[in-house]
Design goal:
The chain has two domains: 4-192, Rossmann fold, CATH 3.40.50; 208-425, NAD(P)-binding Rossmann-like Domain (Rossmann fold), CATH 3.40.50.720. Helices cover 46% and strands 13% of the residues. The chain has helices spanning 12-23, 35-42, 53-60, 70-75, 97-109, 126-137, 156-161, 173-182, 195-226, 230-238, 259-272, 278-305, 328-338, 351-357, 369-373, 386-389, 393-399, 414-420, and strands at residues 4-8, 27-31, 64-67, 79-82, 115-118, 143-146, 166-169, 190-193, 309-313, 342-346, 363-365, 378-381, 404-407, 423-425.
């Protein structure tokens, strides 16, 4: 059944959700207070980079409209999805300013039964606060639902349309049936639970994945001291069905807009409940240390060869996205800049966003991977773009002043690189 849906917030989650719902045949009205963004969307310009999203939008544009009028969005739609940002505060807790502003505005415009669905990542208990806050302004019937998103940048369309599960935190049958109907054409397990459990599921999932990453990075550090190869260790333990192979790629650590924020947020939630989440605090410490260790490795090699120029391949926090939020590459470059090293950086997609986050001191943003390698003393691979594994590395060696590779994602084959003539060092490899 076609449903009338409002999407509040046209950031990464909001615009992806809107386009996917439009693709499924629902009528969608997107609302955002940013007039310039709405005007661009009306002209068909997508504000984010996500493989396949633009093409999908072209095919379902008739089902999606855009407005800055929140009243229209609330009054003309039966289901309202909240997809606004919940950024971290300096202390790691979650800033709910935008979320609370939206809830109060919705409450003032309610004119009948609506299902208010939260997709933003919020602390446990926010759904309860939402109900209490709406009742201050509106005495009629409404439902509140928690429907956390599990979209990975670079594979968001597949994650939405072919998900591992759809989590629905709901407290009444009417709202449950409406949400199930919206997702009826998606063949995936539907986890029906209470709102608080749904709010915790998103945090718990990301916390577990981050733990796997920090764990394998600790194993990589041990491999370097003991003489093992973390790639083989990861293969050996990943074949155990209880563990699985995913998120066992040793490297520089996790980044992006979700993992760091959600790990810090869950720690703060636990602190608020007077629970010391020691394991998760250790996960965060390991992740930060991994980036510092990478910088130390670069400095150690450059000191040995008396070099000053670092070629950096990859600026986005992961491949297939232009997102540099909490990107290990940006943090590593800033550290190297402070130490006076010269940076020659390249990324296939994220260059413009990285320029906004990095000062122009001691850095050159290059037009190609080859240009970045020219006269460099060391090549530091930080983001594992497929493009890099296909490059003619013999040509790269000829361009460099010194043939050193520090592979932060273990993307290259050590033997092949050494046969070409590189001094190769990976993460947790002999």
């Amino acid at each position: 059944m076609q449903r009338k849906i409002a999407i509040i917030g046209t950031g990464y989650v909001g615009i992806t959700t809107a386009i996917c719902f439009g693709y499924l045949g629902h009528k969608v009205l997107c609302v955002d207070k940013d007039r310039k963004k709405i005007e661009k969307l009306k002209r068909g310009a997508i504000p984010i980079y996500e493989p396949g999203l633009e093409e999908m939008f072209e095919g379902c544009q008739k089902n999606i409209k855009f407005t800055t009028n929140l009243t229209e969005a609330v009054c003309e739609n039966e289901v309202i999805f909240i997809c606004v940002g919940t950024p971290p505060k300096k202390d790691g807790s979650i800033d709910l300013t935008q979320f609370k502003e939206v809830i109060r505005s919705i409450a003032k415009y309610l004119d009948g039964y609506k299902v208010i669905v939260n997709k933003s990542t919020v602390p446990v208990g926010t759904g309860e606060w939402t109900k209490e806050e709406i009742r201050k302004y509106y005495k009629g019937d409404f439902s509140v639902v928690s429907n956390p998103e599990f979209l990975r940048e670079g594979s968001a369309l597949k994650d939405f349309l072919e998900p591992d599960r759809i989590v629905i935190g709901v407290e009444d049958k009417k709202a449950k049936n409406i949400i199930l109907d919206i997702y009826s054409s998606i063949n995936a397990p539907k986890v029906i639970t209470d709102i608080k459990s749904a709010e915790l599921i998103k945090y718990a999932a990301n916390a577990f994945l981050a733990t796997k990453i920090s764990f394998i990075n600790e194993i990589a550090n041990l491999c370097e001291k003991a003489g093992g190869d973390v790639k083989k260790v990861a293969e050996g333990i990943g074949l155990d069905k209880r563990i699985g192979p995913k998120f066992l790629n040793a490297g520089i650590g996790y980044g992006g807009s979700c993992f760091p924020k959600d790990i810090d947020g869950l720690i703060k939630i636990a602190d608020h409940k007077k629970y010391n989440f020691r394991l998760l605090k250790a996960v965060s410490i390991v992740n930060e240390r991994q980036k510092r260790n990478f910088v130390k490795k670069i400095k150690r090699i450059l000191t040995k060869i008396r070099g000053k120029t670092v070629c950096v391949w990859g600026l986005a926090f992961k491949p297939n996205t232009d997102d540099v939020r909490k990107s290990p590459a940006v943090e590593i470059i800033k550290s190297l800049q402070k130490s006076g090293y010269k940076i020659q950086a390249y990324d296939p997609i994220a260059m413009e966003n990285a320029k906004k986050d990095l000062t122009r001191e001691n850095i050159k943003f290059c037009k190609s991977a080859f240009e970045a390698a020219k006269r460099a003393d060391i090549l530091a691979l930080i983001t594992e773009w497929p493009e890099f594994s296909e490059i003619d590395m013999k040509k790269i060696k000829k361009l460099m002043r010194h043939p050193y590779i520090l592979d932060g994602r273990n993307q290259f084959n050590p033997q092949e690189m050494r046969q070409i003539g590189f001094y190769y060092e990976g993460m947790g490899r002999k």
